[in-house]
Amino acid sequence: MIDCAAREKAMVINLEFIRAIVTAEEVLLLDPLMQEVLPFVDQLRQHLPLRSLVGGNGEHGGDSNGVKQDGSPGDQVPCLNEATGAEHELPFEFQVLEVGLEAVCSTLDSSVADLERRAIPVLDELTKNVSTKNLERVRSLKSDLTRLLARVQKVRDEIEHLLDDNEDMAHLYLTRKQAQNQQVEALMTSAASNSIVPAGASLPRLNSSFRRSVSIATSIYLDNDVEDLEMLLEAYFMQLDGIRNRILSVREYIDDTEDYVNIQLDNQRNELIQLQLTLTIASFGIAVNTFIAGAFAMNIPCHFYDIADGSFFWPFVGGTSSGCFVISVVLLGYAWWKKLLGP
């Protein structure tokens, strides 16, 4: 299951081997000690500020089920704005998402590179020698390719789904929503501290001012400005699209090799059919000669038997054999003329 969904105060990431819960201040990983997840953890430690990762006794914070890594909402990295050419800050949650997408894309790219290295010698060997062993290797290669293509397609489809829905992307702005909530709470606290008034006539005016302030604070952050996330997702979408195209190129190479092998097998089958036709024509000539010999071998009256010196035997045998040979040659010539034989 590939998913990247927003919750009220967190973002749930489920991409390949990466399963994490990201808030505006921290990221919680599931099974951080897995072999596939360790490079992602190292990249997080390199790219993100560390706070409570190490406890006071020198041990790592968190438990065996997750790694906790904190950063404040202000812990952001610069991101270039294409419209203005100026740098602005990328929120903490998008830093985590970027590192996760980078780790997933790197793993998929490495898998595709291994697949390409395996495919070329296997397919070249198949073109030279069509054997059961080589066919089994190609079958295994196609199975791995199909599974890898499905993995890439799932991640690519999830990113495409996010890019198609600006509302879903807006919900992923956890830092922005947290700042909005903090501002609303500050306004409510300020309004509560000023709620004691001497006269009841000014209370409606105070409530109206409070509602207007809350409305302004809410409208500041509930917009659909998702340019940062859109640029981030588009970059990795293009990278995944390139990986997918490489897999499709390998599959096309396999299909071309299979077509070439089928052509070779068809050619060999045609050669066998031609050989079978030649043997059939030769067998027909021999069968005619055998029929004539068998007919004269029967004990029936015939004036040829009256020739005592046997001078007629060899000319007769030579004549019938030559006649059968001529019949066979004529049939072979006809088959050649009809292009049933020959190259």
From TrEMBL:
Main location: membrane
Its membrane topology: Multi-pass membrane protein
Annotated coiled-coil segments of the chain: 138-165
Cellular component aspect of the GO annotation: membrane
Compartments it resides in: Membrane
Pfam family, one: MRS2-like
InterPro entries the record matches: MRS2-like (IPR039204)
Swiss-Prot/TrEMBL keywords: Coiled coil, Ion transport, Magnesium, Membrane, Transmembrane, Transmembrane helix, Transport
Full protein name: Magnesium transporter
Lineage: Eukaryota, Viridiplantae, Streptophyta, Embryophyta, Tracheophyta
